[in-house]
Amino acid sequence: MNKRRKFIAKIVLMAILIFTLTFTAGCSKNNSNYHEEKSWAFSKIIILNGETYVGTSDDVTSIDKKIGTIKYFSTRETNINNTIFSNYYEVGTNLYSIPNVSTKDAIAVEISKNQYIKAINKRLIH
């Protein structure tokens, strides 16, 4: 009878261990589908020439000259690159200056053929 109790105790302990490992593994943030998106201060960031811009929904009707193209994309905040980067706009997205607006204040982002929106410098956001 004593052997049977030891056997049952081992089974119960193994079941608890398996449950604990399964539960904690399911709660882990280390799976490949997890992104650090929620940690970004803004959801539509562009970094260009050391300046950080935030995409808006404001249409831009006139553009000046092309000033760059998004080279890097990532949703992980730790992957910020000081070159032309975005956490929202795809690699290849063209960026333009806006007539009579300093590129230190705002730029135009080409969201589709001949359609542009404004991205403003984050220092201007209050």
List the helices and strands and how they pair.
Elements: H1 2-26, E1 45-48, E2 51-60, E3 66-69, E4 72-73, E5 85-86, E6 94-96, E7 106-112, E8 115-121
Parallel strand pairs: 4-5
Antiparallel strand pairs: 1-2, 1-5, 2-8, 3-6, 6-7, 7-8
Task: List the keywords.
single chain; 126 residues; alpha+beta; 8-stranded mixed beta sheet; 8 strands; 20% helix; rod-shaped
What does this structure look like?
20% of the residues lie in helices and 31% in strands. With 126 residues, it is an alpha+beta fold. It folds into 2 domains: 1-33; 37-124, no CATH class.
Shape: rod-shaped
In what range is the share of β-strand residues? 25-35%
DSSP strand tally? 8
Distance between the termini: 74 Å
Unreliable spans are 28-38
For the biggest sheet, the summary is:
8 strands, mixed
